Amino acid sequence: MRRLVGIMQSLTPARIKTLAGVYFGYGLSILLRRPIVVSPPSFITVEPVCGCNLQCPECPVGTGELGRRKGMIELDVVDSILESFGRHALWVNLYFQGEPFLHPKLHEIVERFSAQRIFTSVSTNGLLLTPEIVDKILLAGLKEIIFSVDGASEEEYLVYRRGGSFQAVVENIRLLVSKRKKRGVFFPRIVYQTLVTSANEKNLDNIRKFAYRLGVDAVEFKSLNLHHGVDINKLLPSTSKLSRYKMAKAKREWPNACFRLWSNAVISFDGRLALCCMDKEVAMFYNVNNMNLSEAWMSLHFNGIRNGMVSGRPIPDICGSCSL
Ligand code: SF4
Ligand code: SF4
Question: Which ligand is nearest to the CA of 225?
Answer without folding.
Answer: 1
